[in-house]
Amino acid sequence: MSWYDARVHEGVARFAARAGWHLDARMANSSEPAWGWSGDGVLCKLGCSEVDEKLRDFVCGLGLPTVDLSVFGPNHGLPSLEFDPREIGRLAADHFFERGFRHFAWYPVADGKPVRLRREGFELALRERGHEAIAIEPIPTAEGEPWEARERALGERLAALPRPIGVLAFNDDWAVQVLRGCARAGLIVPDEVAVLGIDNQELVCNHLPIPLSSVRLDLESWGERAAGKLDARMRGTDDELETEWVSPSEVVPRASTDVLAVEHPGVARAVEYIGAHYTERIGVDEVVAASGLSRSGLKQAFRKYLHRSVHDELVRVRSQAARRLLVDTDWTLERIAEDVGLGSTRNLFRLFAREESMTPHAYRQARRAAQ
């Protein structure tokens, strides 16, 4: 593998255990090919930003059924699986739009195909709603130059952008650079710059001064699915050489995007009231009263600034809270329904049938199995 993540390994290992494979992982976390190795099939990742030529030559020279977990495989006669950059872009754009952002940026601009595809996916999702993404060039540094200088230079570029702005980075590591650039420039995250990564590396995202929101990619399922595709190729039942696109899971929200970028004071008051009181039996009437606007005035303002109704915002906040409690606690469905202001398990089941197309029980089991 040109890049290693234990979550992918775990997914492959799950399939291997069921299939009775002997899973040789000595090259999983090493850049040195095991020349002379022989086996029945290969799972590999030929590259992250560009092809690792030594790895490619080794893998292709084996002449074995192979599946590549990158976008480069088809160019070298190998089938591949990769996360769909258009779906990643849509999830990221939806996340920013839900929070009222109207300015957006992508970081970094790079020639590598994976970076370019994710950027294009984000830009496509924004264009469909009439917006564009500002592209931020990475800061070149000379050998031996202090990394603090790069952070200051990036901070200066971020400070020159319109604000508030939502920035999507190629992955969590690049997103951390944006956070540090903001800190160097005195920019307030998330009020002035909201930052979203991709991969949801929890050891990175959860242990920052400002925890990082990120698009979660189900790497375990990705590895398991790739192993299944390899199994089919070894059995001679799969001969496709295209890239198979895998959907990402969801955005995991944390402090780096926990803001509502809405200039309308009535909408801001309404959303703040919902966030503080959604656990209670409130409805649209109570939100209208808290906003200081008429019912029709608040309805029009919500549609203009958030592109959804007051009721939709209530449902969204309660749905997020219910999903979080299902995964993070062992509470009964009755307690969760009561805690998020739904009042009954019947309403909770209705919510999940509409939002997730599954029961709350099934959602809890699926999310915990993926962790």
Describe the structure.
It is a single chain. By secondary structure, the protein is of the alpha/beta class. It has three domains: 6-82 and 219-247, Rossmann fold; 85-216 and 251-257, Rossmann fold (3-Layer(aba) Sandwich); 265-370, Arc Repressor Mutant, subunit A. The chain is 49% helix and 11% strand. The protein has 15 helices and ten strands. It has helices spanning 6-19, 53-62, 85-98, 113-127, 147-159, 172-185, 202-205, 219-234, 265-277, 284-291, 295-305, 310-328, 333-339, 345-355, 360-370, and strands spanning 42-44, 66-68, 80-83, 104-107, 133-135, 165-169, 193-199, 213-216, 243-246, 250-252. The strands form three sheets. Strands 5-4-6-7-8-10 form a six-stranded mixed sheet, with helices on both faces. Helix 6 links the parallel strand 6 (165-169) and strand 7. Helix 3 (85-98) packs across helix 4 and helix 9 (265-277) packs across helix 10 (284-291). The longest helix is centred in the C-terminal third of the chain and has 19 residues, at 310-328. The model has no long low-confidence stretch (mean pLDDT 91).
Question: How are the SSEs ordered, and which strands pair?
Answer:
Layout: H1 6-19, E1 42-44, H2 53-62, E2 66-68, E3 80-83, H3 85-98, E4 104-107, H4 113-127, E5 133-135, H5 147-159, E6 165-169, H6 172-185, E7 193-199, H7 202-205, E8 213-216, H8 219-234, E9 243-246, E10 250-252, H9 265-277, H10 284-291, H11 295-305, H12 310-328, H13 333-339, H14 345-355, H15 360-370
Parallel strand pairs: 1-2, 3-9, 4-5, 4-6, 6-7, 7-8
Antiparallel strand pairs: 8-10
Helix pairs in contact: 1-8, 3-4, 5-6, 9-10, 9-12
